[in-house]
UniProtKB/TrEMBL annotation:
GO biological process: DNA metabolic process
Organism of derivation: marine sediment metagenome
GO molecular function, one term: DNA binding
Domain ERCC4 per the UniProt entry, residue ranges: 26-134
Record protein name field: ERCC4 domain-containing protein
Gene3D superfamilies (UniProt xref): 3.40.50.10130
Taxonomic lineage: unclassified sequences, metagenomes, ecological metagenomes
Amino acid sequence: MNEQIKRELAFHSRLKKQRKARVIEIDTHEDLDRLTELLLTGMGYTVVRRLLPLGDYQWGSPLGQVIVERKTPADARDVERLSKQVVRLRDASSHGGCFPILLIDHREEYNTGRYTPKYQPWSDSDFDNVLLSIGGRVRIAHCQQGQLAHRLDSLYRWSMKSSHGLLDTEV
């Protein structure tokens, strides 16, 4: 029995070595996201923090370099900055080699009022208006509050698929 356990452990060790490393780069400006980094590491990702020229998260995939720009409600209210970032994502997409995604983060944000904090979530119409306004070459995804690491994991796995039927038939 002891010999069988050793063989099985050796097999699993070889299997782990054969797996391709899953690397997600996080922009150093995403300093409030240590929890997301910790969760991604726990999910088996190698997280590299560096100054990214575009986006908040990046990884290589069969679609090209996936560039994820994360936006909270406060970010979207800064229309001028959001507009510039979307233009940069579109430009990167038009030159090929990358797959930009705007990730709408439904994270709760609070304004510290004088007496009580005021919660300012996305309203349905605000969310729909952002979707309507951006579109084009930039793909849009969203995640629920507290689910950023899981959503990045889902986007990573989705981007690694060998075929994307609806993308392939896009007009």
